[in-house]
Amino acid sequence: MRLFLALTIAFAVNLGLAHAQTLTLADRHSSRRFTAQDLLADPATRTVTIDDIVYHRAMTYRAIPTTVLLHRLAVGDDDYVQARATDDFSVAIPARLLETASPDSEAFVAIEDPAAPWPTLPNDKDGKSAGPFYIVWRTGSAARISSEYWAYKLAALTVTDSPFKRWPALGVEASIPAADPIRRGLDRFVAVCMACHRFKGEGEGTQGPDLAMPMNPVAYFKPEALRKLLRNPASVRRWPDQKMPAFSQDALSDTDIDAIVAWLSYKAKQRP
Prior knowledge:
Cytochrome Bc1 Complex, Chain D, domain 2; Sulfite Oxidase, Chain A, domain 2; globular; three-stranded antiparallel β-sheet; 2 domains; disordered N terminus
């Protein structure tokens, strides 16, 4: 795998300090660290009001566009940006979504001002906010931005190969048509599920179980029960420290769920 420039958010003491205020921009040649105050004073930082899907209300932030951050680096056309959080959440975001701004989507890294901390996240047991850094999106009606791309408690951003290159066990055979639901299911699995789940050990998510080891869920869930679990896991079963949320139709349509089940079924039939 060829080397890529990296954009890494690191904390002043260690990654477990949720409110350390240091942002490091790094590539293979150099590294530069910024405090929250440095970024708040950056001329590119602006005030934005966002319909925030995590706080479930309009929120106003001081934020720097990701187009500005990534413009300072060299990023390939097919690259992704791996966003990692202090709570082990990890999601791969297509770099093209972060590098461009349009009427339908524009991404920012919101910066929490230590002098004006954000509210506690809804249902956060530790009483923490989304800070110190948080990827937020201003979206239009035609936008299709995964809810998982709202990466809060952000610890790091790293430019990488696409998940399809990094983790070949996810892939489907070339004979599967482009319009087949199996391919749509793979796309939605990467965008929505891989933030928390691995597949045959592939991926970075650790908040949920591996969805292929030791068994694929299609082997022990009836199809309708599996669809209900993907829509709202609490409607099927509850478990201690349950983190998986319910997904609205906007976040994950019935067609998306059917496609994910189709991809899981396809992978279950492949030889080990």
